[in-house]
Structure formats: structure tokens, C-alpha cells
Amino acid sequence: MKGFQLKTPLAPEGPRPDFLIVAGEASGDEHAARMVEGLFRENPRVSVYAFGGKNLRAAGAHLLYDLTQHAVVGLCEVLGNLRLFRQLLAAVMDWVAIHRPRTVCLVDYPGFNLRLAKKLFQKGLSRKGGGEGTLYYYISPQVWAWKAKRRLGMARWLDHLALIFPFEKDFFADTPLRVSFVGHPLLEAKASPLLSYDPQGALLLLPGSRVATVRRLFPLMLETFRRLRPQFPQLSAAVLYADEGILGELQGMFAKYEDLRPALRFVSVAEQNLPCAASLMVSGTLSLRCALAGIPGVITQKIHPLSYFLARRWVKIPHIGMANILLQRESVPEYIQGEAKPSVLCEKVAQCLQDPRRIEGAQRDAEALKTVLGAPPDMTVAEWLLSSLEEKF
């Protein structure tokens, strides 16, 4: 792979690392970073290495490679990058084989991380495969939504699984896999101040953290905002971006919408307490953050037509937004594929801005979500990860 460079700060004969974290998406990188921060508070002496992103590096992990820059969604999008992912998988495997970390912790990103778990097992590099290191997984693949049989492979390869939704325990009850509920990361005190509801705030545009998704959805969001302006002339928009690479993509597409420049600004996810009146967003972690903040909004999504066709066959739940999945109803309207049109989205976002029922409903649903997610955890995620160092085998 042209330009592919892997940092290997340890010599083969160097000290054995305590942890290797593998997080391949912006949200997983963020949650993993919070886990590592807690880990260092519990034990400042542990050594942590990572294939992840900027948040893990900021948390104190030694970043070996920025895996988040290659995040994609959809089968066709993955197939288009298959050679790249094979090389990345081989690079992680080589690092583990050389440095033998005491624990490998996989975070979310199931398309990559479940393949990695299986490979580590097959090559004898994990405890259950006959190796030295334990294999932990944080933020379970959504086996309750699609491909439920994945749980059988997970039970064979993994040593311990950390869950962020309390109801997920039931889906592993028929396997010998150890599972622990560690609480949802967005309910932690440090996770809350990113967004807040303010009827005088901006329209929040969330085009996602993956390049392919941004390219499909950002022009649609901009056109929707353009159509809203005659009805709401004082309305401004804030576009949240995950990193400088995504910002470059956004700014390149925005060049065709010069008329919107005075009313739109780009905002890093590092900004705190962004006041928002409504949101237009891709499904994902940030859509759940909006719902928890009581911000009324609309979810939209477009993926490759073949990926969508296959998803409709595999996915067994009626919604794509996590708030809707948790509440088991369409709390946040969803418009995907051909339904995602500027005229439709404009109408629905306008309701979020001025319909008291939508605004009050978003506030009630925020409290309901906090109740669903607020079950007492078995332990913190940092305690869960540290327990791997006490494994006896």
C-alpha cells in the first residue's frame, strides 16, 4: 500500500506491552480514549498501544497507526477497499506476533475486529487459541439487529465482552462467553457537554465521520438548509466535523454553496456545549447524543444501492437510529435512500424548529433514553479492562 507506514516503537526483545487497543472509527476512538483515561487513573504504570485515532493518542496511548482514516460503511464500500483492509489486518497481526501484548482490546468496528479476533485465535496469538494474551472486546457488535450467529464465533474467540446496553446480556445467555455491562459512555459526566438544546441555537448538520458518507450526504444537507432559509431567515447552521481530513472534504464541497457562507460555520467535535435548535444527521453515535440532549431532529442516510439491498435482507430491526431502536418506536424521523430528498427533509426539519409537539416530544424522549441506558453497571469499563491483567490460565 503506497504511503503505508506502521510505527513500531518497541523492539522485539523489548518489554511486553500491557494493552493493544484496536478502534477503527471516530466514535470507537472516542470511547476507547475515555476507557484509557480511566485505565491510567486506576493504574498509571500500564503501557498502552493502539491502532486508533487522535483521541486515543491524546489519552496517552502510543498510536501505532491512525486506523480511523479508513472507516467505511456498507458491503460494497468495504469490497472497494478490500486490499487495504487485508494489509491493515496483516499489520496488526504482525505487531501482535512480535510484541505479544498481555491483552488485545478490540473496540466496536465489527467488520474488521471480528476478523482480527478470528485470525488471532487461528494463529495461536490469543488465550483461547493457545497463546499468551487475553482477547477483550468493548462495545459489542449488534447481534440483536443482524447476523445473530456472530455471537457463536465471539464466544469461541473472545475471553470477555463489555456491553454498553443493558438488554444485550440476554443475547449472549446461550453462550459460554463472559459478558459485563459497563454502562453507556455517553452518560458519563465527561461525555455530556458537547451539545445542548437552545430554541435560538443553530441547525446542527451531522454528515458523519466517514468520507464516503460525507460525500453522499453533505450536499443533500446543504440543499435542505438552503431551502429552509426563506422560511427561517435568521437561522444559522453548524457543521460538526470529526477531524481535519473530514473538514477538508466538507470545505471542498461547500465551495458550490457560496450563498450559504454567511450563515454556516464548521465546528470541531472538541467544542463544548454547542447550542442547537434542531439537527439533520446521519445515523450514528452523534445522533444518539442529540437525542440525549433533547434536540429535535431528522435522520437521513444513503449508502450504495447493493449495500442497502443486502442490509434490508440481513437487518432484523425496523429502525437505523439508536434512539429509535432503544425506545422501540420512531422518536426521530428517518429518511433513507430515495426518501432522502431536500423537499422532504426541509419540511421535517421545519417541524423540529417550530412545532411544539416535536420539541416537547424530544425533551420527553431524552429522559426516557436516560432511563433505558441508566441501569447500574456491573463495573466501569476501566475496571473491566484492568481485570484482564489478572487472568489466570
What does this structure look like?
- The chain has 393 residues and is of the alpha/beta class.
- The chain folds into 2 domains: 180 residues, Glycogen Phosphorylase B (Rossmann fold), CATH 3.40.50.2000; 182 residues, 3-Layer(aba) Sandwich (Rossmann fold), CATH 3.40.50.
- 40% of the residues lie in helices and 18% in strands.
- The chain contains 14 helices and 13 strands.
- The strands form 2 sheets. Strands 3-2-1-4-5-6-7 form a 7-stranded parallel β-sheet, with helices on both faces. Strands 10-9-8-11-12-13 form a 6-stranded parallel β-sheet.
- Helix 6 links the parallel strand 5 and strand 6.
- The protein starts with 18 loop residues before the first strand and ends in a 7-residue tail after the last helix.
- 42% of the residues are buried.
- About 2% of the residues have low confidence.
Quick gist of this model?
The chain has helices at 26-42, 54-59, 75-79, 82-99, 110-122, 150-157, 211-228, 244-254, 285-292, 305-314, 322-327, 342-354, 356-373, 381-386, and strands spanning 19-23, 48-52, 62-66, 103-107, 134-138, 160-163, 178-181, 195-206, 237-241, 264-268, 274-281, 297-301, 334-336. It folds into two domains: 19-183 and 376-390, Rossmann fold; 192-373, Glycogen Phosphorylase B (Rossmann fold), CATH 3.40.50.
Helices and strands in order:
Elements (H helix, E strand, L loop, with lengths): L18 E5 L2 H17 L5 E5 L1 H6 L2 E5 L8 H5 L2 H18 L3 E5 L2 H13 L11 E5 L11 H8 L2 E4 L14 E4 L13 E12 L4 H18 L8 E5 L2 H11 L9 E5 L5 E8 L3 H8 L4 E5 L3 H10 L7 H6 L6 E3 L5 H13 L1 H18 L7 H6 L7
Parallel strand pairs: 1-2, 1-4, 2-3, 4-5, 5-6, 6-7, 8-9, 8-11, 9-10, 11-12, 12-13
